[in-house]
Write a structure and sequence with these properties.
The complex is a heterodimer of chains A (about 270) and B (about 325). Chain A is an alpha/beta fold and about 270 residues long. Chain A is about 30% helix and about 30% strand. In chain A, strands 11-10-9-12-8-1-6-7-13 form a nine-stranded mixed sheet, sandwiched between helices. In chain A, strands 2-5 form a two-stranded antiparallel ribbon. In chain A, helix 4 (about 100-115) crosses helix 5 (about 135-145). The radius of gyration of chain A is 22 Å and the shape is globular. The N and C termini of chain A lie far apart (about 65 Å). By secondary structure, chain B is an alpha/beta fold. Chain B has two domains: about 5-190, HUPs (Rossmann fold, 3-Layer(aba) Sandwich); about 210-330, Rossmann fold. Chain B has helices at about 20-35, 50-60, 75-90, 105-115, 225-235, 245-250, 280-285, 305, 315-330, and strands at about 5-10, 40-45, 65-70, 95-100, 120-125, 125-130, 135-140, 145-150, 155-160, 180, 195-200, 215, 240-245, 270-275, 290-295, 310. The longest helix of chain B has 17 residues, at about 20-35. The chains are: A alpha/beta (about 270), B alpha/beta (about 325). At the A-B interface, helix 4, helix 5, strand 9, strand 10 and strand 11 of A face helix 4, strand 5, strand 7, strand 8 and strand 11 of B. The complex binds flavin-adenine dinucleotide (FAD).
Chain lengths: ~270, ~325
Amino acid sequence: MAVKIGVLAKQVLDPEMPMAAFRIDGDTKKVVPPPNIPPVVNGFDENAVEAALKIKDGQEATVTVISTGTAFALDVMKKPLSMGADELVLLQDDAFQNTIDSFLTAQLLAAAIRKLGGFDLIICGRQASDWDNAQVPLGVAEILGMACISLGKKVDVQDGKVRVERIIPDGYEVVEAPLPALVTVSNELGQPRYPTLRGIMAATRKKPTIWSAADLGLDASDSAPRITLRDLFVPVSDQECEIIEGEDAADSGRLLALKLREDKII
Amino acid sequence: MADGTGVLIIGDSSGGELASTTAELLAAGQKVASELGEELSVALLGDTLDAAAQQAIAHGAQKVYAVNHPLLAEYQIDLYLAALEALCKEISPQVVLIARTNEGRELGPRLAFRLGVGMAQDCLEVSVDASEKRLLANRPVYGGNAIAVVSCDQTPQIAAIRPKAYEPAEADPSRQGEVVSFPVDLNASQARTTVVDTVMEAAEGVKLEDARIVVSGGRGLGGPEPFAHLEELAKIVGGTVGASRAAVDSGWVPSSYQVGLTGKTITPDLYITVAISGASQHMAGCSGAKVIVAINKDAGANIFKEARYGVVGDWESVLPALTAAIRELTQA
Ligand SMILES: Cc1cc2nc3c(=O)[nH]c(=O)nc-3n(C[C@H](O)[C@H](O)[C@H](O)COP(=O)(O)OP(=O)(O)OC[C@H]3O[C@@H](n4cnc5c(N)ncnc54)[C@H](O)[C@@H]3O)c2cc1C
């Protein structure tokens, strides 16, 4: 039987954008997306898509990508489809704007996963590069009562079990869990595949399923916020850098050594 | 707002000793507990907790909840969660602090979800809002490009604190405290994940997290071979080698070398970066270094905004000269 895989993916501000373009509106406590820099699929979530597609390369599987937000750039969010995912489900509603509150986001995603009939395996990025919360996948696993393995760099499915190489500070451990399970993955999984021309063509033809808050029939008690954002600001560094300049690069290196010695750092 | 009592620290005593990250939490917790006028306690999970319990008290815990069970001898997420959930439901703490280690970064959120509350992940600092007596957590977001101050709306208020964000609390062996045994009912079948193998791949020598001097290389090195030059310099100064994510992603060094937001947090006395641009996600792991030195050929690189000393130049010329001069100076 085909393995039914769900991937959770978030649309985020491009984290590789120039730092100078990063701006906060102090009144609304929001990051202002720069007008000329398109959003991207969160990098770790692309790793999650790749992990799912690797499983699909080796056995019969379907890959459904699920995302929640208020407004989507469709061409961006279709990237997983053009990489080879089968379906895209977008939970889109103005009510879904509070993404700093992982509790609310996990409730939404769990409701959608239930509506989709559940999955054998859910794969997620370890964290989103905007709020860096690293909580939503763990919350989804808790709400749905699934076994959960975090920080994977290799994910295999065999005989009703998932086998994950999980990163630990000085290496990795191999962890197994029976399905259904949820796994988070990190960039150590390797470069996600590029969309193929055929993939792009297929993705253009595919229509995402779009669900609003009403479609998900959420209970009001689930949507009480758990986190309040009190302030949001750009930290200032008062570090003054002393540039060491010798006659040439090698001389600068030598002078740097002298400086460090003088300061008794070495 | 149901209020709860006390500040509970989720301690780590793997290996029989109190972990330094727990002593750091005790430093953070002492301040919070005294501002709230609450008791400071530590939960320890394991099968032999006596030594660590006394160490926790010496470092400032007024009470230790010793959760003794043979199934807690080794960290297993589902069993640890079950034990912590039972403890929190029994004692209803007002605040729970946990270290954002590999274990804490998954235990904290999952515990919060189980208790139906929110949590603040990867915090640099926690304080108390004087008027409302709520916990305020400062956490870097957008890869460190911004700081968010958040509070939790329910109780317990849970925060995971980044390792090394606080200096460990001082030990004073004359301190007195109470050790309360907290029995839990656990069953091996509650564990849903099994570790079948462990593979270590860290470099030999000084651990990156403990090194006094770290020399890190980035994408600008252009390949794995130049890391030998970094090793050479590190060896002379008794330090160790780290890397940016770009160098790790390129496969030049194992991921255990990575410094940064999703790599290691280090606070060496001296941090030398070679051909690293200084992205906020990299700086997230090393901004606690006492002195940062940058070698980069681009004078506009962000690293020069964070460094104490900088050399604008090609590492291929700068590094050998630096290494030779340091060798001469330190061996003279
Ligand atoms: C969610 C998220 C998490 C991340 N986590 C981490 C993390 O934990 N750690 C981390 O490091 N990064 C992390 N990153 C990536 C980070 O954003 C940067 O992409 C990365 O740090 C860049 O690495 P680098 O400085 O080596 O490469 P680059 O940014 O490409 O910089 C290379 C530098 O080398 C210089 N250079 C080139 N040639 C020479 C030469 N011959 N001599 C001297 N200088 C030269 C260049 O001027 C340039 O400044 C993360 C990103 C995201 C989105």
